[in-house]
Amino acid sequence: MAIKVGDRVPAATVYEFIEDETPGCSVGPNAFKVQEIVRGKRIALFGLPGAFTPTCSAKHLPGYIECADQFTSARVDEIWCVSVNDAFVMGAWGREQGAKGKVRMIADGSGELTRGLGLELDLTARGLGVRSQRYSMLLDDGVVKALNIEEAGKYEVSTPEKLLEQAMKVTNFVP
After folding, report:
1. Domains: count for the chain
2. Catalytic entry in 25, 56, 67, 81
C-alpha cells in the first residue's frame, strides 16, 4: 500500500555522493538513515523512474533546480531527488544538471525507501528492473503533508510548481 498524507516516512537507508569532504561526510557515497536526516526539516521530495531518462532529465529535475530559491522562500529546508539508482549515477547526473547546492541527489539503489513508500514500479518487461513511480511529496519532520503520485507515463501532478503551491498552503505562506 502506498504512503498517504499524514503518514510518517518509513525507515530506510539511502546514499548520496558527496563531492566535498566535510566533518562526518567523506568524499564518495555516504549512507544516511532517512528518519535521521528528515528530523526537524521541511523537505520537498520528488521521486522518478531513473537518472538520465528523457522526462526526468528534460523536465522533472531541471524544474526543481530552477525553483530551488522559491522553495527556500516557502520555508522548505531541502529538496531531494530520489531514484532507484546508485550514488555514483545520481552524483554524475546531479553534476551534469547543475544540482549542487540546490537539490540533493538521493540514491535508493536497492529500492529500500521506494518499497517502504509503496511506490515501486516494475519495468522489468522494458529491461529497466524495478524502479520508482514518479511522485512528489512535502515532508515536515518526517510526516507527509502533501503527496502527488503520477499515473504511469505522465508528468502532470509531481511538478515543482504544484509542490511549491502546496508548500505555501501548508505553511500559510503569504508572499
Report:
1. 1
2. 56
**Is-contact 44 80, C-beta < 8 A?**
yes
Q: Which three cell numbers stand for residue 60?
A: 522533472
Q: Is residue 92 part of a domain?
A: yes
Q: What pTM did the predictor assign?
A: 0.90
Catalytic annotation present for 56: yes
Query: Residue 122's domain spans which residues?
Result: 13-170
145 lies in some domain: yes
The residue behind cell 537539490 is 103
Cα separation, 160 vs 85, in Å, equals 21
Beta-bridge mates of residue 18? 28
- List, in sequence order, every residue forming a beta bridge with 78; answer none if it has no partner: 43
25 pLDDT exceeds 80?
Answer: no
Handedness of CA 76, 82, 87, 90 (dihedral sign): negative
Domain assignment present for 3:
no
Return the CATH number at 141: 3.40.30.10
- Which tens digits make up the pLDDT trace of 51-73? 888 888 888 999 999 999 999 99
User: CA 104, 109, 111, 114: dihedral to nearest 10 degrees?
Assistant: 10
